[in-house]
Structures are given as structure tokens and as C-alpha cells.
Amino acid sequence: MSTFSEKPITMRTADDVTLAGTLVVTGKSSASAVVMLHGINADRHEHLGLYDHLAERLAGRGTASLRFDFRAHGESAYPQEEMTIAGLCLDVKAAIRTMIDRLPDLSRLTLLGTSFGAAPAAYTAGTEPLVKNVLLFAPVLDYVLTFLRPTTEWAKASFTPQTLAAVPETGHLLLDGERRLGAKLLTEMEILHPADAVRAARVPTVVIHGDSDSMVPAVQSRGAAGANPLVDVRIVPGMDHGYMDVSDPDGVSARSLENRTMIGDSLVSLALGKDGHD
């Protein structure tokens, strides 16, 4: 097993935003690395520390990783109402540049995007030559279905006709009563279609989604491959949003831990180029 070290870092984006992250490097120079992109209202650790666990698993296979807080999340200070999808894509590009600068032997980069972090991964992947593949976990691929005209009780509580109608006056909408989603982001949600970016993927892309997801409907992932042979969609029975079994919100049951292992296995396989496409 490889030895590894972990340290906090900061990065600057092209629009001059400072991002906080955690870089993991192994005892020897890494040719492969993973950049982890968390969901909305989460941070670089992801729910139940999923990204911390995955970073350690990757390091054990000699793969470096970077997990960081998107702007307006965690320790990356930024006005919540100014966050946009375009800004998140700039964050991803800054993370990629950081890995290139810090890993001189890097030749293979994998993007992991969870939930709201999936779209920035899909949009960025085709523009960065070192990104060889992508893993999208419980991805938000349809902003209208997930947010603007939601079908889940979680989203219906925030995205009501009244709160949406008030945006021109207030300039934002409150998600879960605390996160301010600005008018620019809400407009992007109307006009951007992440599922189209996945169907047009130019690198191998694995989509993993639970069929019992109570926050992001799995139906938006079922058709994500289209006719693209590079896209592999895997629907997991009984899994909720995240790796938890639908009856296990704390993620401690045998079924939940099996799901977590499956996600780790998939990520390691992609990172090491054993996905069958190389």
C-alpha cells in the first residue's frame, strides 16, 4: 500500500476567487489523479465524509486527489447569491491547473462530480485534454426537473410559485431556508441542460444513480447515455441520494457500505485506466 500525505491548500480562479482544498499526494510521483466536486450545501468532505474515504482509497492505489470547497461553500468565501454554474466551472478549471502544476508526471485526470457538482464536471471535461474520464454520482442533470418544477418533496418546499415569482424583487431564492440562490443561477437553470453535455461526452463517463433517490430523481440519469457508447449508466436498486440505502440515512448498514465500496471500486478503475476504454 502506498504511503501518502494530505495537506490544505488554496487556489485562485480566473475570476480571482480563492478556493480552499485538500491535496493528497502519494509517496511516489503520481501519473493519475482525481478531482472531486461536491454537491450544493455540501463541502469538500461530501455527505458522511464520502470524499475523505475515497481520497484514502485512491491514495492506497498510488493515485493523488484534490477535494475542494466550491465558491460560496465551506471555507471558500463568496456571496451565495452570486454563485453561477459558469463560476463553478471556473473553480473546476482552477483545480485542474493546480493538479497540473503540483504533479509534474500527471498524465491522467478523472473528475468525480456528485449531485450539483456533476454538471460542472460534465461541462468541463471536454475542454481539458488531461481529463480522461468522468464519474457522475447521483447527478443533477435536469435543473428544471430537480429545482424549477420539482417532483420531490425536498425541492417542492423551496421552489414554490411564490418564491420563484419573488426573485425579480428579492434577487434570490432560499434553498432549505438558508442558501441564497441568485437570479443569475436560476436563469442558468432555465437555459442549461447538463444531460445534453453527458450525451455529447467525448471521454468515458460513468453515471451512478440510486433508483430510490429522494432528492434528485433518477429518471434524469436513465436516458443520459443516449446513443453515446462512451456513457455507462448504472442504476442502483434501493439507493437514496448519496450511497445510503433508502432505509439507512446514517449510511452504516451492510447495504450502504456495499454501495460505498462499489462507488470506490468504480472510481479507482477509472482513475487507473481500467474502465475498458483505454
Would you write up a description of this structure?
There is one protein chain. The protein is an alpha/beta fold. The chain has a single domain (4-144, 192-271), classed as Rossmann fold. It has helices at 50-60, 85-102, 118-125, 143-148, 153-156, 161-165, 167-170, 183-191, 194-199, 219-222, 254-271, and strands spanning 4-12, 18-26, 32-37, 64-68, 108-114, 131-137, 172-175, 179-182, 205-210, 231-236. The model has no long low-confidence stretch (mean pLDDT 95). GO terms for molecular function: carboxylic ester hydrolase activity. Residues 31-154 form the Serine aminopeptidase S33 domain. Pfam families: Hydrolase_4 (PF12146). This is Serine aminopeptidase S33 domain-containing protein.
List the helices and strands and how they pair.
Layout: E1 4-12, E2 18-26, E3 32-37, H1 50-60, E4 64-68, H2 85-102, E5 108-114, H3 118-125, E6 131-137, H4 143-148, H5 153-156, H6 161-165, H7 167-170, E7 172-175, E8 179-182, H8 183-191, H9 194-199, E9 205-210, H10 219-222, E10 231-236, H11 254-271
Parallel strand pairs: 3-4, 3-5, 5-6, 6-9, 9-10
Antiparallel strand pairs: 1-2, 2-4, 7-8
Protein name: Serine aminopeptidase S33 domain-containing protein
InterPro entries: AB_hydrolase_Est10, AB_hydrolase_fold, Hydrolase_4
GO molecular function: carboxylic ester hydrolase activity
